[in-house]
Design a protein that fits this description.
alpha+beta, Immunoglobulin-like, Purple Acid Phosphatase, chain A, domain 2, 7-stranded mixed β-sheet
């Protein structure tokens, strides 16, 4: 059968084809936009890792977490080329193939989904993954803070552990954890006091950490800062805000008064907590008092390493003594006996004594005062000269003074805030997220209670000398009394020392060696208020660490100087 095409039919076919081609040409960009994802991943990403994109579009797996993987290119970035429907909104994140390895923000905080408005043309999307979820490394002390450091971390796969460490990022020394598993802990020993070290953690699994630093405990003549806060459970975002403020403060060490997580028996909650606090933990020692939400769980004791039985313990740092107690076990018996023995020794050797634990003996918050704690311990605090007791449990801030001992409730670390009133002992109270920044300079203590936005909402000072620094004393006067860091430092053989006197008075500027022996007096006697500069020529003094101490009447400032010949 012969089929003939008439001119009219040819015209209709050509017209239809033309319209179809135009129609497809117009719609093609809508259905086929070429998108290239180019992703920079954290340095600690292991060579054995695979990076996945986890998204809402079918081409991104429809939320199947390990369906669509990226390919590592020659530049060390990860890449995916995919066609996505134009003019649609796509939500996505990056993972390493599981819900426990979803990317985190700059300080380890959870992040919202990334959003891509797909264009009607080609596009290169350049993303940066700031951090992967991880547990560690984190720092603590089990033994002498001046000569040891305990470094703990978790790996994704089972293996043994290794810490490389040294005075710079070339390391040179190793510490080993030969136990086979995912939780690792290495105690470094034989370290120098008041010294900074670089370190990184590795595993036989191929996981390699990035470079971090830690410092051993300072000498008793050196100033230092520490932060105390508590009750970080429940809200990942809020505890991340408080952690960010602590990182800005950059203290030498941190203490938490308990209730870190909502339920201490669940490893997933601990991993989530570690993720949010990672930067805070990796460069400074972190100490914990057990709270009721830790539940004395086995998981807690697997993660954390502290002196003694890890429920109650103490450490020395600088000229201060820190005592951790547990309100989640018997308050009397072995714990109270140990406490009194420890306080007797500390009262003879430490300038400052601090105690931290969870349940407050004095509180105007929802939970109120724990009378059993008050009856068991507070008389010891008063007898042996404890300066400040830090607690949590009530989710607020309250500062009190009872029988010359300050009691501070600091439960504003991220848990749901609660209302707080006032009592006969209350100096100041407020329901707010916060942390406490404490600065120690010889016999002068300054405490600043700080909100996540940097607002200083409560402050006070204590001075242990013939002058009593009261609540009403001009703190601006103290702050303007300054001994500036010498320059250069380290130096050989000459350095410049500058200082400021806010008032006229009897002063002395002296140099001490590492043993606390006076080696030279640079200036002494009556000086008018003002700014001064002195050139110190070290002469025949040997290389080493020295301390410059400025005294004005009964106030002190100290700086560490390093002579390198």
């Amino acid at each position: 059968m012969e089929v003939r095409t008439t001119p009219k039919n040819c015209f209709l076919i050509r017209t239809f084809v033309s319209y179809l081609v135009c129609f497809l040409f117009v719609l093609l960009p809508i259905f086929a936009s070429e998108i290239t994802f180019l992703v920079t991943v954290p340095e600690e990403t292991a060579t054995t890792d695979t990076i996945y994109i986890w998204g809402s579009a079918p081409e991104l797996g429809n939320w199947d977490i390990d369906a669509v993987f990226l390919t590592e290119n020659t530049d060390g970035n990860w890449e995916l080329l995919v066609d996505l429907t134009a003019n649609e909104t796509v939500y996505y994140k990056y993972t390493k193939g599981s819900s426990s390895t979803v990317e985190r923000g700059p300080i380890g905080e959870p992040i919202d989904y990334r959003i891509l408005e797909v264009p009607d043309n080609t596009l290169v999307v350049r993303d940066t993954v700031f951090r992967w979820p991880r547990v560690g490394p984190y720092l603590s002390w089990v033994n002498d803070p001046q000569t040891t450091m305990t470094i703990s971390w978790s790996t994704e796969a089972q293996g043994d552990g290794l810490v490389e460490f040294g005075p710079d990022d070339s390391y040179g020394f190793n510490g080993y954890d030969s136990s086979f598993g995912v939780l690792h802990s290495v105690e470094l020993t034989g370290l120098e006091p008041s010294a900074e070290y670089h370190y990184r953690v590795l595993s036989s699994t191929g996981e390699i950490g990035t470079d971090h630093t830690f410092s051993t405990a300072k000498f008793s003549t050196e100033p230092f800062t520490f932060v105390v806060y508590g009750d970080t459970r429940t809200n990942d975002f809020l505890r991340g805000r408080v952690a960010s403020r602590i990182i800005e403060i950059n203290p030498d060490l941190v203490f938490n008064t308990g209730d870190l997580v909502e339920s201490g028996e669940y490893p997933d909650l601990w991993r989530k907590w570690f993720n949010t606090n990672q930067i805070l933990l990796e460069d400074r020692p972190f100490f914990i008092a057990l709270g009721n939400h830790e539940q004395n769980a086995t998981v807690y004791f697997k993660y954390w390493h502290f002196p003694g039985n890890e429920q109650w313990y103490s450490i020395n740092y600088g000229n201060a003594h820190f005592i951790c107690l547990s309100t989640e076990t018997n308050l009397y018996g072995a714990q109270r006996t140990w406490l009194e023995t420890d306080l007797i020794a500390a009262s003879d050797s430490a300038v400052w004594i601090f105690v931290f634990f969870h349940r407050p003996p004095y509180s105007s918050g929802d939970n109120g005062s724990d009378i059993s704690v008050r009856q068991a311990w507070c008389s010891l605090f008063e007898t042996y000269g404890v300066d400040i007791v830090f607690n949590g449990h009530d989710h607020n801030y309250e500062r009190s003074l009872i029988n010359d001992v300050y009691y501070i409730v600091t439960g504003g670390g991220g848990a749901p805030l609660r209302a707080v009133g006032s009592s006969s002992w209350t100096i100041y109270s407020e329901s707010t997220l916060h942390c406490n920044n404490i600065t120690i300079e010889d016999s002068l203590l300054t405490l600043d209670a700080i909100k996540p936005d940097g607002t200083n909402f409560d402050s006070f000072s204590i001075y242990k000398g013939t002058v009593n620094v009261t609540e009403d004393m001009n703190r601006g006067l103290l702050r303007s009394f300054q001994l500036h860091q010498n320059f250069p430092n380290p130096f050989n053989p000459v350095t410049t020392i500058e200082y400021s006197l806010p008032i006229s008075g009897n002063m002395a500027l002296k140099i001490f060696n590492i043993l606390g022996q006076e080696t030279e007096t640079l200036a002494s006697g009556w000086q008018k208020h003002g700014n001064y500069q002195i050139i110190w020529e070290t002469g025949d003094l040997p290389s080493g660490i020295y301390f410059c101490q400025l005294r004005l009447n009964d106030f002190f400032r100290t700086k560490k100087l390093v002579l390198q010949k």
